[in-house]
Amino acid sequence: MSIISEAKDFLDQTGQISRFAGRFFSHGLKPKFEIKELLSQCYLIGYKSFPLVGLTGFIMGLVLTMQLRPSLVSYGVQSELPVMVGIAIVREIGPVITALIFAGKIGSSIGAELGSMKVTEQIDSMDVSGTNPFKYLVATRVIATSLMLPILTILGDAVSLFGAYIGVNIKSVTNIRFFFVQVFESLSYSDVLPAVIKTIFFGFAVGLIGCYKGFNSTKGTQGVGSSANSAVVLSSVLIFILDLLTVQLTNLLGLN
Amino acid sequence: MNIGAIKNKAEGEQQPISGPVIVIEHLYKRFGANIVLEDFSLSVEREENVVVLGKSGAGKSVLIKCIIGLLKPDKGKILVFGEDVTSMDEDELAKARTKIGFLFQANALYDSMTVRENLEFPLRRHWTSLGETEVGKMVKEALENVGLTHTSDMMPAELSGGMLKRIALARTLILKPEIILYDEPTTGLDPVTAREIDQLILTLQKKYKTSSIIISHDMNCVRNIADRVILLLEGRCYADGTYKTLESSSDPKINQFFQ
C-alpha cells in the first residue's frame, strides 16, 4: 500500500471517528437516558476492573521505588524517595498506566462485544425493536468509561502509593503515617487535579474507540477479533497523544 | 385485562385500516456499482403471506431491510399502513416498527440475556406502562405459543437451532405486530424442524391475523406458507402469482426455482 493511500485511510478513519464522536454529543446525550444500562456498565467497567488496576498499581509503585532508590542513594537524597515516587505516580505514571490497563481490558471487551453483536445482527435487532442502539450501547459505555476511569485512577494511585511504601520499607524502616504525610505534603492541587481531569478524556477515548470499532465491525468472527485488537491499539495511542496535549496545556496554563 | 386489551391501551385504541398494508413503489437500491433493486414494486394485502424468491444476492434481504428502515433506498416509496417509511425520522420509524416484526435469519437473540430477558426487552421499552404481572403474562403467552415455556431461564447458547428460531419468533410476536418480515426462517434447520417452523408460522399468522413477507429458498416452505409468490430477478419483480401458477410456468427463469 502506498504512503498516499495509507494517509488517505488515516484521514478517512479520523473523519469517521470524529463523526462518531459528534453523533455521541448530538444524540447520545439527549433524553431519554438509559440509566439502568449506564449503571450496569459502570459496575462492569469500574468495579470489575479494580482488582486488575489495583494489582498493577501495587506492583508499579513497588518496582518504581526499588528502581529509584539506588540513584537517590548515590546522591545522598534517599529521604526524598516518598516525595519523588508520590509525584511521579500521581502526576503521570498512575493515570497513564491505569488508562493503558483500562484500554487493554475494557477497550478490547467493548470492541469484541459490540463487534459480535454487529455481525450477529443483534444491533439491527435492537434497532427494529424500537430501541436506539447508539443510545443504549454506545452512549452508556462512553459515559461509563469517562466516569469510571478517574475513579479507578484515584484508587489505583492509592494502591500504588501503598506499594511504594512497601518498597521503601524493604531497605529501610519507615512509619506508614510519616510516609504518607511526606507524600501529601509534596503534592498540590495543580498536581492532582490536571492528572485526574485528563483521565476523563482518556476514558472517553477508550469508550469511544471501543464502541466505534465494534459498531463498525465487519467480516464475521475475524472482524470481531480485528475490532477488539484495533480498539486497544488505537485507544492506547490516543491516550499518549492526549497525555502530550494535556501536559502542554497545563504548561501553558502555568499549572506545573 | 387480556393481552389484546393491553395492546390497544398501549397504542391508544387504534382501529385497523382497510386496503394493502404494504405498498412498495418504484424502489431503487444500489451498493456502489452493484444495482440490487431497480424499479421494484409490490403490494401486500391484510393477512396475506407473500414469499419472495430469488437467487442468493438478488436483493431479497435488502428489500425487507428497506421496509423495516435498516437500509435507506436510493429512490422510491415504501408505504406501511399508508405512511412512507423512507421519509420518517428516527422517532417516527421507532413508532412504525412496533407494527412490524422482523425475524432475522440468524435469530439475533441477545446472547448476554436469558430467554425471558430477550422477550421482555421489547415489551419494557415500548409498553412502559405495563406492570410486572402483565409483562410476565405476555412472556408466558409468547413462550406457550412456541411450546417452549421451560426455557425461560436458559441462555440462547443452551438452545438448539430450532428452539432458537422458535424463541426468535416468540420475541418477534410479543409486541403483536400486524406485519412480520421473515428472513429465511427455515434456513439451516433439518427438514422436520423446518416443517414445524412452517406450521408454527401459519398457526401464529392465523391466531394474530398478521400479514407477512417471507424470504425463502426452501421450496417446501414456499409451498406450505405462500398465498402469493414473487420472483425477484435482476432487481425487478419478474413474476407474481400463486405457487401453483408459477410452478406450472414454462418460463425457464421461473422454472429453475421449481425443479
UniProtKB/TrEMBL annotation, chain A:
Superkingdom field: Bacteria
Pfam family for this entry, one: MlaE
InterPro entries in the cross-refs: Permease_MalE
Keyword entries, A-Z: Membrane, Transmembrane, Transmembrane helix
Parts of the chain that traverse the membrane: 42-63, 83-103, 142-168, 195-215, 227-247
Keyword Transmembrane in record: yes
Protein name from the UniProt record: ABC transporter permease
Organism: Pedobacter fastidiosus
